[in-house]
UniProtKB/TrEMBL annotation:
Domain of life: Eukaryota
Composition skew (Basic and acidic residues), residue ranges: 553-567
Region (Disordered): 399-441, 520-567
InterPro entries to which the protein is assigned, alphabetical: NA-bd_OB-fold
Record-linked CDD domains: RPA1_DBD_B_like
Polar residues composition bias: residue spans: 399-416, 532-550
Native organism taxonomy: Eukaryota, Viridiplantae, Streptophyta, Embryophyta, Tracheophyta
Protein name: Nucleic acid-binding, OB-fold protein
Amino acid sequence: MTEAFIRDLNPTSRNRVLEAKIYRSWIGRNPPDITEKSYHAILLDRQGDAIQANMEVSEKKQFTTYLIPGKTYRISGFTCTPTSNWQQTLENGTSLSFTRFTKFDSIPSVGFPNHYFRFISYNRLPYKVVDPDDKSQKAYPLLTDYIGCYISSGEKEEWGNPNKDQMVLRRIEIQNLNRNSVELTLWDDLAESFPKEKIDALEKPVIIAVSSCRVGRFRNNLQLSSTPATYYYINPAIPELTQYKAEYKAAFDLNPPLQVVRHPYQDKEQEKMRNRIPFSKLLTENPLTHTDVRFTCEGTITGLDTSREWYNFKAFVTDTTATITMTFFSPKADDIVGVSCQALVASLENPDPRDFPEKILATIGKRHIFQFHYNTNSRQAPVTFILHRILDIPETTSQITDRPSASRTIEQSSKNIEIDVPEEQQTTATVEYSPPATSPPCPTPLLSPVSQVSLAEPELATSIIPVSQPTETPESPKWNPLQEQNIEGEEIQAASPTYTYMQTRSRHGKQVAMQLAAVTGSTPATEEESLSKPSAKTSAQETTKSTTAKRQLFQEKTGDGKKNKKE
């Protein structure tokens, strides 16, 4: 047999001997299917090259005692084959095939590299996105390695239906030096074993490297999703680690990243305090860094921008630190105005889009808990925001009688049963809840407000500001089998979801489902400290109610009278 390096091997190579280090190992699956399809490992040689080895799952028991990450062997009795595109982790076009005739002889671990990565930058991620609607036969992109600064992580969540399949997920925010954030979703074992508390306690900045991920896109936001081959490493022992930490420290000392919660709380009181960040801080941030992030504040409307039409009016909202401009779209604005746009227009003899009705003028001085997000459609200064909803407006409770439905007519039943769609399921900017099983009644087509949000008026704005207003002080924010090593200063390794303004149901379940479709398999443990998490979010039940098509505040012109009458 001939000694060989990984770079010398090709699919026709035979009778070779290879000295290599076991870098990673995992079981190939297609979650949520629990069927184990294959067994795999990545090997490194002293020259720093990598190659994947494949085994039949029926022979897994024979190899689990050898394929332990960190172990080094002189390996013989293997064959070389072309690399399969399924869950392809490496660019190497040659893979190894191990059988019961493969022999492993232990050797010293001196001279082998600690890691093997092929990182790509944030701006290259779009080239790794797979379109789920593209049914053409073509090679899938290589799984992705990514590195950045660990910003925050959420708690583990369950996703799925107990009558079908369920999984566990955990979301992690990773940010690069350009302040581009990407969400990494860990699934199952990776999500379960992720040591969130230990990582959060580390000295900042914390560098996280993640391997073999799928890249997806939801609502035009890039996302990473773990696969069975995924490992992640905290402060990995790579030559560039010191340089990366110094660069992030310099950037974050100058302008620390915001610690935001990107997904809603189920508890309404917690949701009222989510991302309670002062206006003075929000005005200094790059809106694109916080796309689809919901912020909250307890503020007062101190004036109106009367240079625009009142169908989608802009108001000046003040907290204790600064004043921001917030755009109010219907139907969200109905809660604070106290009447729908349709009813307001009907009550006016001569509705002039620039003559503000008294009911809108009466909003000046009102104090509420606002939930809002950045207006990322506008590329012009200053920074502006869009109302998502009012959080301190009491919700209408459902009234359901206890009489059997068979004892009265359908018309009578509809009068006694009123089901309100919760505010949490009326999404307008980011998908936060699971989609309903069936589609709700289709509303009257309305004009999209995107162009109105992004356009800047050339004329000077005029404002209506009261002479005196009561001031209140807002509430202060309230704020696996793997063995772990010493967390401080040491490496931790883990084994193996366009703002529409009109949406009345959430599509968060679609986001999770798209990520789930890309996931395949489970990752075994390594000797280094591991961080792992599966993904699973429970689908929310659809809640429907009888609705009457309403004219939205941002609709520029009155709809067809005949059509409205018919509805």
